[in-house]
Amino acid sequence: MKLNRLTAVAAAAALALTGLVATTAPAQAAAAKPALVIDYGHHKVKVKPKAIYPFKDLYFTGIHWTSLTSTTGYATATQNVNTCIPSCADANYKRTKVKLKFTKVKLSDCRRVFSRVTVTQVKSKKVATHTLPVFAKKGC
After folding, report:
1. Which has the higher per-residue pLDDT, 43 or 119?
2. β-strands 93-108, 73-82: how paired?
3. Which of 24, 42, 54, 87 is 20 to 30 Å from 7 at the Cα level?
4. Which residues form the signal peptide (predicted)?
């Protein structure tokens, strides 16, 4: 009789654990979705865009994504910075090969996007961090 009772308890525990795993798996899968990057030039949220235009005089082209998770993204790209010489209207851009690290996930247009990019120049190893624009949308 004790063996049957022990078997029943073990079976109930196994069922409870199976239910727990089944209910947490979708939550973990949803949390594992990669964060997105805004393609500011076209004002769209995209996964792994080839170019982003976060600022008027600074943008990134030729983006090659090496890693993208729910909390960070890594890529290489060409940074284009307007030198404003002789004036900003002349659009004289300096191009530099860079490594990008995207962090700080926030909501933008009701979607999870990166709100910070750390830029490391490949040759000079200079590092700069930029806060990326985030757009609010009501009713999320």
Report:
1. 119
2. antiparallel
3. 24
4. 1-29
